[in-house]
Specification:
three-stranded mixed beta sheet, glutaminase activity, Rossmann fold, single chain, PdxT/SNO, binds glutamine, pyridoxal phosphate, seven-stranded mixed beta sheet, alpha/beta, hydrolase, 6 helices
Amino acid sequence: NMRVGVLAFQGAVREHLRMLTMAGAQAVAVKRREDLCSVDALILPGGESTVIGKFLQETGLGEDIVSRAEGGMPVWGTCAGMILLAKHIVNENYVHLGLMDIWVRRNAYGSQLDSFIVRRPVPGVSEKPLDLVFIRAPYAEKVSPGVEVLLEVDGKIVAARQGNLLATAFHPEVTEDPSFHRFFLEMAGSA
Ligand code: GLN
């Protein structure tokens, strides 16, 4: 079965590892460049994108992830991970991995709506409504034509796919429903 890594520096690492196991994959914590060599796909968890981004740069893992992703390795970024994937961060003059043609806004819901949950079915992922957990979440203001929008909530893009790249503004790993992790595994299986 598929070996799926979770970037394990900071953030919701254990939650993703647990969900991957529930969804039937072999889950691997990726801390060093060597760890990346053995995985078929990678999850960039939520946390603090500036902190994780600095780690990626300092360790050289960022470069490795970019070249693997350009070679077709499936990568899924959740929340901070979505920011790490983006080619454009609105109102900032830096990018991290710069892989995905999306324009993300950090902490986009502001402090009043810091964290919230909405229930929605996600076409192609789950017909049953899923709990979508937003925690100081970003959203995408726009995407390039090559990017498929999987879900909008209140007119904001919160899930998108571009070939082997998947981004969600919310956190499926903190729920009990592995549908999104299964979706990523299917995506990875057909890559
Ligand atoms: N606000 C965080 C950031 O900008 C993301 C929050 C999260 O991943 N839950 O990195």
